[in-house]
């Protein structure tokens, strides 16, 4: 009799187990599980934003911490990380001290612990890092003439004055620049002991990244639409690219040896050629690591001991890591939809990273500075100050949609500095 009852119990268990498993994975089961999910405190407001998006897009939310589950044939999933970064946030407003024009003439750079900004009418404003106070002594040394563009090459400040390239020395001031100039009037994307890297974007018609070999003085070209960041990984280069067209697209490729890419044999710089005559040319390409549609990767860089990406998805921006097809949100940044058309991110020494944020006219409108455990948004105009996205919880009752405001405390303030 006992064996019969035991067998009956096991049979009942075998019958109920699939039923329970099906309910656990059903919409009702996921809804109940999500009610008891406890998100990391630093990601709670971001979670509320994602929950609002589920309603706006009429999507059934997946089981947390998963935020977005890739559909069949999809490119990516999104989930909340169990270990958020917890970056300290600050916004500042720095106005042009020389003229009424708000925005810089070229992309800002970091030189010897200072943020170097070229404002109208062609003068440098210098801000010590990380406090962003004016370095008036350095400004006096630099502003002996008017300038049109500037870079940091081989650790030295190089500028364009009229049609001349000149280089700055603290001992002798500005002198003619006698070295090779692989860049046109365009920002530098990356530099190490071997290569100077730049890029050109032609929008929906494609883009390219250029590796200028300092030793051989040759250019090597890879297809990248449109490169915004380079992350050095050992002796290899990770190229992060994103295109702000339609719903956006992004790609990340690993280039182990740039010399195996397409070598440029023209008499002018490859970025200066007429692209309408060579748009069909097949170019080299590295190993694809990420290839996404309907999501933009505005930046990629090392933060601590990991690679992170600045993701813009459904007008929501956040920092994320990437693992096995999933973006794991690690920081909400400024709880906004931070966006740029052709941004540029450069890693400097001492774990300092600078992201130049631009307008459709490729004018720098603001910067994002990462230093240690802090993220600082530097705005050149009130128009670019980050404003938080809505985290209202939308309720749908019949044909009536209501919005209930969720109260959060956020210490983010904007500091205005003349």
Short description:
Helix content is 12%, strand content 41%. It is mainly beta and 418 residues long.
Which properties best describe this structure?
418 residues; mainly beta; Neuraminidase; six-stranded mixed β-sheet; 4 helices; 41% strand
Question: What's the average pLDDT?
Answer: 88
Structural class: mainly beta
Rounded to the nearest angstrom, the radius of gyration is 25 Å
Global geometry = globular
CATH secondary-structure class: Mainly Beta
The assigned CATH architecture is 6 Propeller
Q: What is the CA-CA span between the terminal residues?
A: 90 Å
Integer tally of domains: 1
Number of helices: 4
The overall strand count is 30
The CATH topology is: Neuraminidase
How helical, in percent, are the residues?
10-25%
Task: Note poorly predicted spans.
Answer: 396-412
Largest sheet: 6 strands, mixed
β-sheet strand percentage:
35-45%
Strand order of the largest sheet: 1-2-23-22-21-20
Account of the protein in words:
It is a single chain. The chain is mostly beta strands and 418 residues long. It has a single domain, classed as 6 Propeller (Neuraminidase). Helices cover 12% and strands 41% of the residues. The chain contains four helices and 30 strands. The protein has helices at residues 2-24, 27-35, 44-56, 136-142; strands at residues 66-68, 77-80, 88-94, 109-111, 114-119, 123-128, 149-153, 156-161, 164-169, 173-176, 190-191, 195-201, 207-213, 218-223, 227-233, 236-243, 249-255, 262-263, 287-293, 296-303, 306-313, 316-323, 326-331, 344-348, 352-358, 364-371, 374-379, 393-397, 400-404, 414-417. A six-stranded mixed β-sheet has the order 1-2-23-22-21-20, with helices on one face. The protein has a six-stranded mixed β-sheet with strand order 24-25-26-27-3-30, with no helix packed on it. Strands 11-12-13-14-18 form a five-stranded antiparallel β-sheet, with no helix packed on it. Strand 12 (195-201) and strand 13 form a beta hairpin. The longest helix has 23 residues, at 2-24. It is globular, with a radius of gyration of 25 Å. Mean pLDDT is 88; it is low at 396-412.
């Amino acid at each position: 009799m006992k064996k019969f009852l035991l067998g009956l119990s096991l049979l009942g268990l075998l019958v109920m187990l699939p039923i329970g498993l099906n309910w656990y994975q059903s919409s009702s089961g996921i809804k109940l599980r999500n009610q008891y999910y406890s998100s990391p405190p630093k990601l709670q407001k971001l979670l509320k934003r994602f929950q609002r998006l589920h309603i706006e897009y009429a999507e059934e939310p997946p089981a947390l911490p998963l935020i977005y589950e890739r559909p069949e044939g999809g490119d990516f999933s999104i989930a909340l990380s169990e270990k958020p970064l917890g970056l300290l946030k600050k916004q500042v407003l720095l106005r042009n001290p020389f003229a009424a024009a708000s925005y810089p003439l070229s992309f800002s750079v970091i030189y010897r612990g200072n943020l170097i900004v070229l404002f109208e009418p062609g003068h440098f404003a210098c801000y010590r890092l990380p406090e962003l106070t004016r370095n008036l002594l350095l400004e006096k040394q630099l502003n002996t003439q008017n300038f049109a563009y500037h870079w940091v090459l081989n650790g030295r400040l190089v500028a364009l004055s009229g049609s001349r390239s000149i280089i700055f020395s603290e001992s002798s001031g500005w002198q003619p620049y006698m070295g090779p100039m692989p860049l046109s009037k365009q920002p530098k994307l990356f530099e190490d002991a071997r290569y100077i890297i730049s890029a050109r974007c032609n929008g929906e018609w494609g883009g390219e990244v250029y590796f200028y070999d300092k030793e051989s003085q040759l250019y090597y070209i890879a297809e990248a639409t449109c490169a915004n960041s380079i992350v050095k990984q050992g002796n290899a280069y990770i190229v992060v690219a994103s295109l702000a067209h339609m719903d956006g697209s992004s790609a990340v490729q690993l280039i182990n040896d740039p010399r195996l890419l397409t070598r440029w044999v023209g008499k002018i710089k490859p970025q200066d050629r007429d692209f309408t005559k060579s748009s069909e040319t097949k170019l080299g390409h590295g190993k694809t690591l990420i290839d996404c549609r309907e999501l933009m990767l505005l930046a990629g860089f090392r933060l601590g001991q990991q690679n992170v990406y600045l993701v813009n998805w459904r007008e929501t921006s956040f920092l994320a890591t990437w693992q096995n097809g999933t973006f794991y949100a690690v920081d909400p940044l400024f709880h906004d939809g931070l966006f740029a058309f052709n941004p540029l991110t450069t890693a400097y020494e001492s774990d300092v990273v600078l992201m130049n944020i631009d307008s459709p006219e490729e004018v720098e409108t603001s910067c994002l500075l990462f230093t240690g455990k802090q993220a600082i948004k530097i705005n050149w105009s009130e128009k670019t100050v980050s404003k938080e996205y809505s985290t209202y919880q939308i309720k749908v009752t019949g044909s009536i949609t209501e919005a209930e405001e969720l109260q959060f405390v956020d210490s983010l303030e904007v500091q205005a500095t003349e």
